[in-house]
Amino acid sequence: MSEKKVVLTPLMKQYYGIKNKYPDAILLFRVGDFYETFSDDAVKVSGILGITLTKRANGSAQYVELAGFPHHALDTYLPKLVRAGQRVAVCDQLEDPKSTKNIVKRGVTELVTPGVTINDTILDNRENNFLAAVHIDGKNGGLAFLDHSTGEFLTAEGPLEHIEKLLSGFKPKEVLFEKNQKQLFTEIFGTRYFTYALEDWMFSTESATDRLLKHFQTKSLKGFGVQNLKLGVIAAGAILHYMDLTQHLHLSHITTLSRIEEERYVWLDKFTIRNLELFQAGGEGGRALIDVIDFTLTPMGSRMLKRWLSLPLKDVQPIKDRQSVVEYFFKDPELKENLEQHLRAVGDLERLVSKVAAGRLSPREMVQLKTALYNIAPMKAYCMNVDNEVLKHLGEQLNACTSVYERIEKEIEPDPPALISKGGVIREGVSAELDELRHIAFSGKDYLAELQHRESERTGIPSLKVNFNNVFGYYIEVRNTHKDKVPDDWIRKQTLVNAERYITGELKEYESKILGAEEKILSLETELYNQLLSSVAGFIPAIQLNAALVSQIDCLLGFATLAARHKYVRPVIDDSNCIDIKSGRHPVIEVQLPPGESYVPNDVFLDNESQQIIIITGPNMAGKSALLRQTALIVLLGQIGSFVPADSATIGVVDKVFTRVGASDNISQGESTFMVEMNEAASILNNISDRSLVLFDELGRGTSTYDGISIAWSIVEYIHENKRARAKTLFATHYHELNEMASSYKRCKNFNVSVKEVDNKVLFLRKLVAGGSNHSFGIHVARMAGMPRSVVKRADEILKELESANRKGQLGKPVGDLAQHREGFQLSFFQLDDPVLKQIRDRIASLDINNLTPMDALNQLNEIKKIAGL
Questions:
Q1: CA angle at residue 413 from 429 to 546, to 5 degrees?
Q2: What's the CATH number where 502 sits?
Q3: For residue 574, which of 61, 230, 402, 561 sits 20 to 30 Å off, Cα-Cα?
Q4: What is the SS3 assignment for 37?
Q5: Which whole-number Å values give the CA distances from 473 to 192, 247, 470, in the listed order?
Q6: Angle (CA) 550 536 539, round 5°
Q7: CB atoms within 10 A of CB 717
Q8: Domain span at residue 676?
Q9: Same domain, residue pair 66 and 88
C-alpha cells in the first residue's frame, strides 16, 4: 500500500483501520453520496471499472490515489468487480452525519465474493451460485456446497476422484481450502477455480462440528444423516466459518444439511461432463445439452434441472415416478396448460426466501412473494385432483401459506416503491397513528391554500404567495408594490429585487408539525415493514419446501414440452443389463441441422452376454463421434426421467458413464495429447463396473500407428475378458485391424458407419451397419476441406504405394520406396518436389489466360508472390 505517502487525517485513519481487517478485499468506503477507494484499491478499481483515477494531494510529496462512484451506482459497479474475481468489502456509514459532530461511524456491512452474494445483479438466475469447501485427507476428501442465495447446503465425502467429479458437476463460483493444503489442492484440482485459503483451525473436526451445531441449534448431526461423514462435516463447518468471516450473519434460510449420496447417482467424471457437452458447448456457436432440453418456466426449475443432469438416478422406481408424471401431462394437456400459467407467476420463490432471511427483501419483492404464494394454492388444487399418485403426493406437500399471503395483501400497497425509504409502502388502515400522520403531512396543500387566502383577505394583498425552500422553510412572498401593507407580526427573512419574503409564527409551527410528521411516517413505515418481514421469516421452511416442489413440477412440465416439441418417446427403464435403442438421434445435433435436413437415426444394442463391445469403423465426418455421444446422452436423459430422442428405447440402468473422446492437450501442465489419452483411459479401466457404459473415440491417435493399435487392442481385450465388470463399450476407431477381434472375442462385434463412393466422391450416409470398414476415405475428406490439389494428389499416390507394399508384406520398405518416387530436380521448374512450388503451379494452371485482363494478371501475380513468401 501507499500508506507511507498519506497524511493520516481522521478519515484516512478510520479507512486504514477498517482496511487492515480486510487486506485481501477491495474496500468500498462510503463518504457522503460516494463510495470511494484509496491507494492500491483505487488503482485496481480504476482499471476494472474504467473510471478516473485521481490523486488527493497534500504537500509536494504526499498524496493518495483515489477512485470512486456515486452510491446509487453500487448495483452497476459491484457486479463488475466481483466478476473480475475480486472480493469486495462494502463499508457503509452506520449513523446519520447530522447526528454527530465527530467523524461518522463506519463499518463493513457485507463482504461480497464470487461465491457469496444475494445481489440479483451479480447472480445468474438460472444457475446456482455455489460456494464450495474442500478438505483433503490422504486419498480421500470432504466436500460441501452452499448456495447462499437459495439456502441449499450439501455435503459429501469419498475418494478424491469423487470430489473432483462433484466439483465438475456443480461448478462452484468459489472454492475454500486450508492454507497448508494450497499446493496439494492445485496439484489435484488444477487452477480453474476461484479459490480462497482459510486458516487451518476452521478445518478441525471440533471447530466445524461446533459451528454446525450452533447454527442448527441441535445437539448432534444425526438428524441430517451426516454424522458419519467426518470429512464432509469438516468442509461444511468451514463454509459456515467463512460466512461469519464475510459478515453474512443472517442464515436462518439454511435449514438443513443434505448428504449427496454417491450410491444413488450415476458416476459422471469431469471428462465425461466435458466430452458430452452437458453444460458447456465445445466449439464456438455450439449448444450444450442443457440449452436444448431446458423448457422450464422458473429460474429455480432451471437450476434444479441442472442438478438432475449432473446427478442422474440409478434407482429404477424414482425414474419411473418422474416418467409417469411426464406421461400424465401428455394425456391431460389442459392440466399442463393450467399449471404452466400459475408456474410463470411464481417466479424465483427460492431466492426471495433467502432475502427474507437476510432482512433484505424490498417492498416490490414482498409483493412478488405474495403473488408466488397466491399461485401455489391453485397449483396444489390441480395436483390433488389427478389420477397420478406421484403428482398427487407433490400436491399434498404444497403449502399455500394463506396467512402470509393475506397479511401481505392487507398491509402492503399493490404497487409499492422499490425502497422502503421512498415511503408509501404500508396500506391505509394498518396503523391509526400512521394514517393520522399522513393526514397531517398530505393535507398540507389544503391548509396552505386556506392560509394564503386568509392572509390575502386580511392584508388586502391579492398576489401574496406561500412557498417553501430548504434555506428557511415555509415563507410568504410579497411583491414590492404591496410591501407597505405587510402587518407588524410578519418577520422579514429575505429581500429580492422585486419582492420580499416573510415568515410568521403560524407558518413556523405548521412547518415543524409537517416535517416531524414526514420523519415519523418513514420511521413508522419502516418499523411496520420490518415486523411483517420478521413474521414472514417464520414461514421460511414451508416456503422453501414449496420452492423445491414447484421446481420439480416445473422440470417435469419442461420434459413434457421437450418431448412434444422434438418427438421424444418414453423409454423402458429397468434393472436389466441391456441397452436397446431403436432409431436413436443426437438431441443437440438434430435441432441444429439446416432447415429441411433431417437427422439420420441409428439403432444401438448392447448387453453383457452377446454384444458387449461394438467396434465402429468408418471415415472422419461419417458420424462415429455423434453416434457415441448420442448413445450416452439418450441413456442419461432416460435416467433423469426425461423421454428420449428415439423410436423406442430400453435402458438397463447404468451406474457409470465414461468417455474418452477427442484430443485435449494439457500443454500447460506438460502433458501431451497421448499422455492425456492414457490418463483418461487408465481412469476408466480402474473404475469400470458391470453396469458401466464406456465410449472410446479414436484412442491411440497421439502415438505411432503400431503403438496405437497395440494399446487399443489390449484395452478392448481387457474390457472383454474382465469377469468382474463386463462394461458395455462403444469403440470408434480408424484402426481397421481391430475388426479382427470379432473373430476371437465372442461378445465383440464389428459395425461401420456406411459411406458411398460415387464418381470418385464420397457420400456420408451416417448409417450404422454390421461389419467392419477397410477404407478410411481420409483423402476424400482432405479434398472436401479445400486442401491444395497437389497435396491431395500426392497423398493418393502415397496411399497406393503403401497399400501395395502392405499386400506384398513389405511394411518396412515403403518409406524408402516413396522417397525414390519423389519428384526430383528435372528440367521442368514445376516438377520440383516443393509444396510451395506445387501450389504456384496449381495456381497458374487454373488461370484462363484468354480472358485475363491486365489488372487481373497483376492481382494474380501479387497472390503468387504472397504464396512464395516474397
A1: 115
A2: 1.10.1420.10
A3: 561
A4: strand
A5: 61, 42, 6
A6: 55
A7: 15
A8: 572-783
A9: yes
